[in-house]
Amino acid sequence: MKQFKELTAAVLTLLATVAYAQEGEAPAGPSDVNVLGKGNFTSFVTEHPLVLAEFYAPWCGHCKALAPEYEDAATKLKEKEIPLAKIDCTVEAELCEKHGVQGYPTLKIFRGPDSSSPYAGQRKSDAIISYMKKQALPAVSILDGDTIAEFKTADKIVVVAYLSADDSENSATFTAVADKLRDNYLFGTTTDSALAEADGVKAPAIVLYKTFDEGKTVFDGAFTTEGITNFANVASTPLIGEVGPETYTGYMAAGIPLAYIFVDGEEIKEKLTTAIKPLAQEYKGKINFATIDAVAYGAHAANLNLETKWPAFAIQDTTKNLKYPFDQEKEITEASLAEFVKDFVEGKVDPSIKSEPVPETQEGPVHVVVANNYEELVMDNDKDVLLEFYAPWCGHCKNLAPKYEELAALYFNNPEYKDKVIVAKVDATANDMPIEVQGFPTIKMYPAGAKDSPVDYSGSRTVEDLATFIKTNGKYKVDAYVAPPPEPETEEEEEEAEESKAEKSAEETPVGSAAPAATETPKETVKKATEGAQAVVGDDDYLPHEEL
Ligand SMILES: *[C@@H]1O[C@H](CO)[C@@H](O)[C@H](O)[C@H]1NC(C)=O
């Protein structure tokens, strides 16, 4: 999954960019960057097969830093017929929302209106140019007898389609998959039936070549984009892989449970890998098995409610975020694990739930949620509940705390609102929650009557904006915020105040939709987190997962 490596690099760049995000204005005069809006966005990305689009806000410092680089890249890529575009999200709110923009700038590569992927390169002119030129190469390489052998081993995972020359339908399907997954795997195709025969297949066929396990897997599903995508994802996952920064996101997104084998050395790793192989084979496609280096990522054991004692074994239900630690008093053997895994599959193992004690009384105004009162306080009632997931070591959370108290008081101290809105917080490092958050603080609204579809908060962390969010997304539309009386100011001062407010929210706004600046990710705080604290890792592609 080289994609994640690149993304991690991208995040580092984002963080680095903060240092020189200056006031610089975009150069005046004619620009090669195409300004797009609601009225012409779709037609533009339809007319141009490959477009890099920047979603930005004029006040955002990172956007200003990017502007000259982006302009330069646009000029140089113009002759390659790769247009660069920008969308001002303060004007085109609807368009930006439609494309899931959560922070500025967000850079996306469009291949037609329905296919976009995040730009994962650096924010420098040279990097943008080289990245986009590569993107412009065909996603599928055309292979023949001279090139196929080298191609098969050109990367860790290579996917080759053997098709007959007139099979345009399957060719189009394969190309569509390759377009989507081009950052993950190499794709090639050939119409030479002798090459198919040499590999023991007959067109139409797809073979995935890999440098591990059985070396290659032949596709045997229906020739649809979904079928091929699933095949590529399953066949590229090693029988017993390794959990690490590059693979974690993939495992979490796999949609099946992950069985962790914590090992603290090569010898025990070898021994357990050998012992568990038959199990992994038996449950292939149902449970992923992977070792994890306990020396580097031992803190992750706490996330699975395991003691830091090795070796250790646990299964995580990645869709419901439930943990099933294997009894650490028992010896880990092939037989003991076989029994445990069988019981797990048959639903005979109860998940382990970590919880702080349930508070006897809610002192208010911010309600304290723990794992064991989550159902009652958040889910099982007819109130609009705003819930903050925090970590004790998170600085952004500490900054938010007084404002959050102030917000909560607006409802808690009002007899009319008290029964309609709850403002609550949970220490997500000490309590197992049904969802795994991607960074701290994470704020979600669980509206009355629609608790199963919580709404993520992505605005600035002010009392006013949070109150507006509660009003907009809550069932009761409670409007509790009262603006403080305006202070008399001269016009000039007012303008300045506006500007500094904008700058401030720029800092607070998640950058690159991943929020490395606004939300504390485990990476930034890994040192603080290692003492048994839960290092939360999410499934957001942008987050660095070095800490696990
Ligand atoms: C797209 O529309 C906007 C107005 O919404 C206009 O300013 C811009 O020039 C148009 N861009 C192109 C490439 O036609």
From TrEMBL:
Sequence ranges of Basic and acidic residues compositional bias: 521-530
Domain Thioredoxin residue range list: 13-183, 344-475
Disulfide cross-links: C60-C63, C394-C397
Q: Which Gene3D superfamilies match?
A: Glutaredoxin
E.C. number(s) listed in UniProt: 5.3.4.1
**PROSITE patterns annotated for this entry?**
THIOREDOXIN_1, THIOREDOXIN_2
**What residue intervals traverse the membrane?**
none
Q: What class of enzyme is it?
A: isomerase
What are the GO cellular component annotations? endoplasmic reticulum lumen
Q: Where in the cell is it found?
A: Endoplasmic reticulum lumen
Q: Spans of biased composition, class Acidic residues?
A: 488-498
The entry sums up its family as follows: Belongs to the protein disulfide isomerase family.
What role does this protein play? Participates in the folding of proteins containing disulfide bonds, may be involved in glycosylation, prolyl hydroxylation and triglyceride transfer.
- Could you tell me what this protein is called? Protein disulfide-isomerase
* Species this protein is from: Tuber borchii (White truffle)
Organism classification, top ranks? Eukaryota, Fungi, Dikarya, Ascomycota, Pezizomycotina
